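Reviewer comment 2.1 asked that we show a complete input and output for one of the modelled complexes. We chose the flavin-adenine dinucleotide case, as it is the one discussed in the main text.
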Amino acid sequence: MTQSGDLAIIGGGIVGLATALALTEAHPRLRLILLEKEPQLAGHQTGHNSGVIHSGIYYKPGSLKARTCVDGARRMKQFCDTHGIKWEGCGKVIVATDEAELPRLQTIYERGQANGLSGLKMLSAAEVREYEPNCRAVRAIHVPETGIVDYVQVAAKMAELIQQRGAQILTGARVTAIDLAPDLLKIARLHKLESGVEVDYRLSSVEALAAQQPGSYDAITCMEMLEHVPDPASVLAACATLLKPGGRLFVSTLNRTPAAFALAIVGAEYIARLLPTGTHQYRDFIKPSELAAWLRASGLQLEDVSGLIYEPWRNAARIGSRTDVNYLACASKPVPGEVEGPVPGRAEGPA
Ligand SMILES: Cc1cc2nc3c(=O)[nH]c(=O)nc-3n(C[C@H](O)[C@H](O)[C@H](O)COP(=O)(O)OP(=O)(O)OC[C@H]3O[C@@H](n4cnc5c(N)ncnc54)[C@H](O)[C@@H]3O)c2cc1C
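Response of the prediction step:
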């Protein structure tokens, strides 16, 4: 079944869920969809970690890591208390097993103090054994703020709250990304390492993917790409082949108008230098009427055309009615046997 929303988050681990939770709290009207490839949430790292609520003692005072870890640990405990999830404030001991390790232990202790951890205590060898009878150390730090929790339970509660706020969570929903430029895929894979989300990036043309997996995608996005390919109609036909019946295709591209020439080529490439000169060729820009004709020829139904308006002073973009520069189109693949009816918000006709 095809779902629609304003924003999609890929990955139902703690990072995706916590992001969805914060976004739905800050923007109650946001229509958010979280996509998880597995049949259940928290099936990877989140469900297979050591369950420690880290205190933030190790991190350099003032660093982002230190601030987020210290604040995150307190907020995690608060979250658990609010929602009846059991966590244990068992604390931990960090030990120096010989004299040579003492200066490093002292540095960790000072970092913990600078990071605002409460109750830190330097233990003697005898005191260490009171906490951990089987531990042999010359000295140790007791960190009472470290705790343990079951992150699968935390994830389940987050998912419940997100859904109560009207967001959708789709499991069994894998995201695949393709590109024909090996360098871009390299960058995307690096980004994947940072974000932790394992999007399946493939070096493939859409036509090749369509030959392998016809009728298997619920939604396809093709953003700012059609104006760079020699045969946009072929790309759209392949997207149509890839979609399941009822699936939706989202396309954004540049209109062939004097305004688009002025803003996207002269403004962005020559004046503001947001893009390298020569990125765009005016003749390759696409009028919405041309796009509509290619979509129809591929058997897709155009549902909506909206303007995509970039506001450089805010470094942000918004959806609006002005389609003469950048625009977004949405088309759907008809379900066999279903009579085509009016779609809410459907464009009367392309400009
Ligand atoms: C051995 C080990 C022990 C750890 N112990 C602790 C600890 O005690 N305390 C602590 O705070 N941290 C610990 N961590 C770190 C912590 O587990 C991770 O930082 C955290 O779980 C990362 O969450 P995540 O949401 O980014 O990743 P994940 O939990 O891995 O979630 C990513 C999700 O994305 C989904 N996904 C991937 N690709 C796609 C796709 N193409 N389409 C759709 N969905 C996709 C996956 O199925 C997965 O569910 C530990 C890590 C490891 C490896």
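The pocket of flavin-adenine dinucleotide is lined by residues 10-16, 35-38, 43-46, 49-52, 54, 174-175, 196-200 (CB under 6 Å). We note this here for comparison with the apo prediction described in Section 3.2.
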